[in-house]
Structure to design on (483 residues):
């Protein structure tokens, strides 16, 4: 193997972030102490250092937040013309850009993701979502939902820890553009970027109560989604909790959007541009340590090239740099929590126990923090747990196929249906495959590509409803799209 470059450390400065020792709840435009909640700590998963104390919202706090959102909807945000709302949303987008470095460092500290990703993906995409939906706010009559589509009212939004700021943007931007007000609950392991976003909303002079951000764990989330004062609930997270929420909301008439797990197939045909495909496979499963709902966690590779693809993959994985998330050279950061690390370890162990061959590059894991090496399983068959269950970690299961039909059958052999990838030189094959894959998003000769103008969402156990694009407006407006 060619000699490897040695990279000198290139750490981003954490001095750009002003962490407060403790944070209140953001309700009705200000930070307040919880009435009946408590406090919890959020840590840096790459070092286990405690970053700050955060408030946990109890029932009375959730109620206070929903009431504030209701009042803001009735008195301020609902009646405001779209062209006025858009000014606030554009302002938020611009401040996100101005404070992007601070946001990126904070996101990497709290989540463990490499600064390269928070800086180049999470933060710019979050700003892009606010820009995109700000542009819709005064054009809703042209969204295909009738001449004067009405907002639903108050939205309760629960988000996960894998893309904390970006998920907040996915939820807030379309809700605000359409005239809804929000109560957002970030995940308990990654509350800090949402709390900085709250400061940004203050800086943007967003009227009080239009967005309320209440931190806390699953019980806070459960209290929020069950609150009778909501008109809309939207959730991104595990399929299990998604199902609980759906049961809870059945019969209430409240609108619901669910964005849940996935087990995407990334399908590589023998005529694919191979080095490009290898980069796409790596990006598909090792981006954000594989903690991505649409991750390409099942590689389906056509038999004649299977061996050479696996070899090329192994060579490429040897060059990935795992370590300090704040180092600009880092490719693979920390796993978000010890709970998630345990889940990844258990599923990887099941892969070995069920007979698949496990391989990882020769990398040393830091002593403190939650780490898992990039891992490849070959000899995987569809019945194994690693071929069926969402691992949500840097673990790729490699399966093979002979014909396009077999690829379709294997790809669709899952309870999920969020995303898929196709790698081939043939345009006709892309269309043939895309029409047959049961997945909400199908990428061709690329993977994990996101754009605010493009709808995102799943089938089956991956959930329902779409976020992003014109479709994303529908989730927050009365009426349904005319096509
Ligand atoms: P989770 O579904 O428990 O957490 C997601 C969010 O829901 C968090 O804000 C959490 O506080 C909240 N929550 C938890 N229980 C709730 C309840 N009963 N009612 C309302 N809100 C509730 O997911 P968790 O435990 O963090 O991860 C478990 C697995 O879920 C992961 O290993 C992964 O497979 C999957 N997952 C999928 C995500 C996606 O993007 N689709 C994101 C996060 C996790
Ligand atoms: Mg944390």
């Amino acid at each position: 193997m060619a000699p490897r470059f040695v990279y000198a450390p290139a750490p981003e400065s954490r001095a750009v972030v002003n962490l407060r020792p403790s944070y209140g709840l953001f309700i009705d435009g200000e930070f307040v102490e919880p009435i009946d909640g408590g406090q919890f700590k959020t840590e840096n998963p790459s070092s286990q250092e405690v970053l700050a104390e955060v408030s946990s919202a109890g029932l009375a706090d959730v109620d206070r937040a929903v009431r504030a959102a209701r009042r803001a909807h009735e008195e301020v945000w609902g009646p405001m013309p779209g062209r006025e709302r858009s000014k606030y949303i554009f302002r938020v987008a611009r401040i996100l850009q101005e404070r992007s470095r601070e946001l990126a460092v904070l996101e990497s500290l709290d989540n463990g993701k490499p600064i390269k990703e928070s800086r180049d993906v999470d933060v710019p995409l979050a700003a892009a979502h606010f820009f995109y939906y700000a542009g819709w706010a005064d054009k809703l009559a042209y969204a295909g939902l009738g001449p004067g589509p009405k907002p639903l009212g108050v939205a309760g939004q629960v988000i996960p820890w894998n893309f904390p700021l970006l998920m907040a943007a996915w939820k807030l931007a379309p809700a605000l553009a359409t005239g809804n007000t929000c109560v957002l609950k970030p995940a308990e392991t990654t509350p800090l970027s949402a709390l900085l976003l709250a400061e940004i909303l203050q800086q943007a002079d967003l009227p009080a109560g239009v967005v309320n951000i209440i931190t806390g764990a699953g019980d806070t989330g459960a209290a929020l989604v069950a609150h009778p004062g909501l008109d809309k609930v939207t959730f991104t997270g595990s399929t299990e909790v998604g199902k609980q929420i759906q049961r809870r909301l059945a019969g209430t008439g409240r609108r619901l959007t669910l964005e849940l797990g996935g087990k995407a197939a990334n399908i590589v045909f023998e005529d694919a541009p191979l080095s490009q495909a290898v980069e796409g496979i790596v990006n598909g499963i090792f981006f954000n340590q594989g903690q991505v709902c649409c991750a390409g966690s099942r590689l389906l590779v056509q038999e004649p090239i299977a061996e050479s693809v696996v070899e090329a993959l192994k060579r490429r994985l040897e060059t990935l740099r795992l370590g300090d998330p704040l180092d600009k050279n880092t490719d693979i950061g920390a796993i978000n929590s010890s709970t998630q690390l345990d889940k990844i370890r258990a599923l990887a162990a099941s892969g070995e126990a069920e007979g698949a061959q496990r391989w990882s590059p020769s990398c040393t894991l830091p002593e403190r923090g939650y780490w898992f090496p990039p891992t490849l399983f070959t000899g995987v068959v569809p019945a194994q747990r690693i071929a069926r269950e969402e691992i949500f970690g840097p673990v790729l299961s490699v399966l093979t196929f002979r014909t396009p039909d077999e690829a379709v059958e294997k790809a669709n052999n899952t309870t999920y249906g969020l995303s898929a990838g196709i790698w081939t030189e043939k345009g006709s094959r892309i269309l043939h495959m895309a029409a047959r894959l049961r997945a909400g998003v199908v990428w061709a000769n690329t993977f994990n590509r996101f754009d605010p103008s493009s709808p995102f969402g799943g089938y089956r156990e991956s959930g329902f409803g779409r976020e992003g694009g014109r479709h994303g407006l529908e989730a927050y407006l009365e009426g349904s799209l005319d096509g």
Observations:
- The domain at 265-444 is CATH 3.40.309.10 (Aldehyde Dehydrogenase; Chain A, domain 2).
